[in-house]
TrEMBL record:
The keyword ATP-binding does not apply. Residues 28-92 form the J domain. It comes from Lactuca sativa (Garden lettuce). Keywords: Signal. Pfam families: DnaJ. SMART domains: DnaJ (SM00271). Gene3D superfamilies: DnaJ domain, Glutaredoxin. Residues 1-24 form the signal peptide. This is J domain-containing protein. The lineage of its organism: Eukaryota, Viridiplantae, Streptophyta, Embryophyta, Tracheophyta.
C-alpha cells in the first residue's frame, strides 16, 4: 500500500514538472536585446533604449507589446548588472544558481536546481508564488521548483511531504489522513501576514502610523474570509514597487477586535483596504478604498493619496515666492516633470513640519532661471536658509530606486536643517528676515520687487536691534498688503545687510558709503534704480513711520550712483 501511494505521488510530481516545463519559456537576455555575448555595456544600453522605446505600452498598442516590454526590462536588469551577468554567463542563472535558466521574470517559469547544504534537496514553490497560479489580477503566473542532491530516503532526491507543505502551508504530519494535516487556505488555524506586510495592532498603530508623515496601505481582514490572499498579494506588490514612499500592513480583526471596532475598519463579508493619507490636510486620516480589486486601480488610488504639501509654482511665482516671510527653511525641486513626482510628494509628508516644499517644471538647464541658480543638471533640489542664503543641495539626481533615493535626500535635508538651526541660533534669523547675499539678492530685492527695505548694520548689537524692529514692522505691513484695497505699490520685502562685509554695496547710494553710521535703512527700487535712505534714530516708531511713508509714496527717491552689487 505504501509503495503504491509513493508511486502515485511520484507520478503526480513528475506530471507537475512536465506541465511546468511545457508552460515555461526560457529566455536568453542576449537574444531578447539582440546583442552578442561579448557586447559592451554601452552596446547593451543602446539596444535597451531602442527596444524599450519601440515596445513601450504608452506608444505601442499592439498585442504582445506589454509582454515584450517586460522581457526587455528583465533582460536589461540582468545584463546591466555586472554580477548578475557574470552569474548568467557561468550558470544560466543571474543569481548564481546552476540550473536550467535564470529565475522567474515577466510571468515565465525558470527552473532552479538547489542541492548542497541549506537547500535540503527539496522540491519547492516560493512562499507566495503558488498563490498566483490562478492568474489573479496583479500577480504573475510564475512557478518555481528546486530539486537537488540531498534527497534523504526518497529515490528521486526530494521529500513528497514537502510538496504538500509548500503547496498548502503546513506539513503532512501523520500522512494524508493524519490529524496533523493542514491545507493552508482550506483548513483552520491562524494565518501570518506576508513577509513584507507589518502586522498592525493598537500599540504599533500609535507608534508607527499616526502622524509620522508616512503613507500606509492597510488591509483589515479575518482569517476565514475569501479574497484575503488576493489583496495581500497585490498590496505587497504595490508596497515593493513604492518601497520607501509607502508602508504596507494588515490588521487581523479576529485577534484585534476592539482595535478594529475603535477605528471602524472591521470587515463584514470581505477584506477592506484603507490608506492612511495626508493628501488634503496636515493631519493624517484613514480613507477606505472602494474600487475594483485590481493592481492597477489600487496603485492609482495609492499614488493619488500621497501627501501634497509641496506647492506647485510657475517660473514667475518661483522668483517672487521666496520673498515671503516664513520661519521654516524652504526646499524647491526643479524638474522637467509635468506633475509633482511621487518621491517629492512622499518627502513633503515626511518633512512637512521641518521645511516648506515647492516644485516647479523647467524645460532644461538652458532656462534662464536654472542658469541663474547655478544648476547644471536636472532634476535638482534648491534650499533656502532662513537668512536668505540659497544653496544647490543636489543636481542631476539619479533615482536608482525609490527607497535609496528618499533615504539619500532625507539625509541631505537633515544636514541642511542643522545648518539652518546654527544660523538661527547665532544670527537671530528665526523670524525670517534674510541676510542679503549675492545668491539671494535678485529674489529679495530684484526688479520684480517694487520696493526692498534694507536694514544696514555694522555690529552684532546693531543687527539684533534692526532684526527685532524689522520683524515687527514687517508683520504689520504684511497685514496691510493682504488688504484687498491695497494697491500694487504696497508690495515690499525686507532684508538685512552686513556693511562690515558688504561695504561696496553702499557706494551705489552714497559717495562715502555711509561710513559714519552704525545703522541705517535703505528703501531700494531696483526696477527704477532709485533709493531713499533713513539715517535718523533707529527706533520702532521711526522705522514704522519711514516704511509707512515709503508705502504711501510720501518719501522722495533719488537716482542711484551705480548698480549695487554684492560679493
Amino acid at each position: 500500500m505504501k509503495n503504491t501511494w509513493t508511486i502515485s505521488m511520484i507520478f503526480f510530481t513528475c506530471s507537475l514538472l512536465l506541465y511546468a516545463s511545457v508552460e515555461s519559456k526560457s529566455l536568453d537576455p542576449y537574444k531578447v536585446l539582440g546583442v552578442e555575448k561579448d557586447a559592451s555595456s554601452r552596446q547593451i544600453q543602446k539596444a535597451f533604449h531602442k527596444l524599450s522605446l519601440q515596445y513601450h505600452p504608452d506608444k505601442n498598442k499592439n498585442k504582445g507589446a506589454q509582454e515584450k516590454f517586460e522581457e526587455i526590462n528583465n533582460a536589461y536588469e540582468i545584463l546591466s548588472d555586472e554580477e548578475k551577468r557574470k552569474n548568467y554567463d557561468m550558470y544560466g542563472d543571474s543569481r548564481g544558481n546552476p540550473g536550467f535558466d535564470g529565475g522567474a521574470h515577466g510571468g515565465h517559469t525558470y527552473f532552479r536546481s538547489g542541492g548542497g547544504p541549506g537547500h535540503g534537496g527539496g522540491f519547492t514553490f516560493s512562499p507566495d508564488e503558488w498563490q498566483t497560479m490562478g492568474g489573479q489580477s496583479g500577480g504573475s503566473k510564475s512557478y518555481s521548483f528546486s530539486f537537488g542532491g540531498s534527497g534523504g530516503d526518497s529515490p528521486f532526491g526530494f521529500d513528497v511531504g514537502d510538496v504538500f507543505s509548500n503547496f498548502f502551508g503546513g506539513g503532512m504530519g501523520g500522512g494524508m489522513g493524519g490529524s496533523g494535516s493542514q491545507f493552508g487556505g482550506f483548513g483552520g488555524g491562524a494565518r501570518s501576514s506576508p513577509k513584507n506586510m507589518v502586522s498592525i495592532n493598537s500599540q504599533l498603530y500609535k507608534k508607527e502610523v499616526i502622524e509620522k508623515g508616512v503613507t500606509w496601505l492597510l488591509l483589515s481582514y479575518t482569517p476565514s474570509m475569501k479574497g484575503t490572499q488576493h489583496f495581500e498579494s497585490i498590496i505587497e506588490e504595490i508596497g515593493n514597487s513604492l518601497k520607501g514612499a509607502l508602508e504596507v500592513g494588515s490588521v487581523n480583526c479576529e485577534v484585534e477586535s476592539s482595535f478594529c471596532k475603535e477605528l471602524g475598519i472591521r470587515p463584514k463579508n470581505k477584506p477592506r483596504v484603507y490608506i492612511y493619507s495626508y493628501k488634503s490636510i496636515e493631519i493624517g486620516s484613514l480613507i477606505e478604498y472602494t474600487g475594483d480589486g485590481t493592481l492597477k486601480d489600487l496603485k492609482s488610488f495609492v499614488q493619488d493619496h500621497f501627501p501634497k504639501f509641496s506647492k506647485r509654482l510657475t517660473l514667475t511665482e518661483f522668483e517672487t515666492k521666496f520673498n515671503t516671510i516664513e520661519s521654516l527653511p524652504k526646499l524647491i525641486l526643479l524638474s522637467t516633470k509635468k506633475d509633482t513626482p511621487v518621491i517629492w510628494r512622499a518627502l513633503s509628508g515626511m518633512f512637512r513640519k521641518r521645511f516648506i516644499f515647492y516644485d516647479t517644471q523647467v524645460k532644461d538647464v538652458s532656462d534662464p532661471l536654472v542658469e541663474n541658480l547655478g544648476v547644471d543638471k536636472l532634476p535638482a533640489v534648491i534650499g533656502l536658509l532662513s537668512n536668505g542664503e540659497m544653496k544647490v543641495l543636489k543636481s542631476g539626481i539619479h533615482v536608482k530606486d525609490m527607497k535609496s533615493t528618499i533615504k539619500e535626500l532625507g539625509l541631505l535635508f537633515d544636514g541642511f536643517e542643522k545648518k539652518n538651526k546654527k544660523l538661527g541660533g547665532s544670527n537671530s534669523d528665526n523670524e525670517g528676515i534674510p541676510l542679503l547675499r549675492a545668491t539671494n539678492f535678485d529674489l529679495i530685492c530684484g526688479e520684480k520687487t517694487p520696493v526692498c527695505v534694507i536694514g544696514v548694520f555694522k555690529s552684532a548689537k546693531g543687527r539684533e536691534k534692526l532684526h527685532k524692529i524689522l520683524s515687527s514692522v514687517s508683520q504689520k505691513s504684511l497685514l496691510r498688503r493682504q488688504n484687498p484695497a491695497s494697491g500694487p505699490r504696497d508690495s515690499v520685502s525686507y532684508a538685512l545687510l552686513d556693511a562690515s562685509n558688504q561695504s561696496s554695496f553702499l557706494y551705489a547710494f552714497d559717495k562715502s558709503g555711509f561710513k559714519s553710521l552704525d545703522m541705517l535703512l535703505v528703501a531700494y527700487k531696483s526696477r527704477k534704480s532709485k533709493f531713499s535712505a533713513f539715517t535718523g534714530d533707529v527706533t520702532f516708531e521711526e522705522v514704522e513711520r519711514f516704511v509707512g511713508s515709503v508705502l504711501n509714496g510720501d518719501v522722495q527717491f533719488s537716482k542711484t550712483r551705480q548698480k549695487p552689487t554684492l560679493k
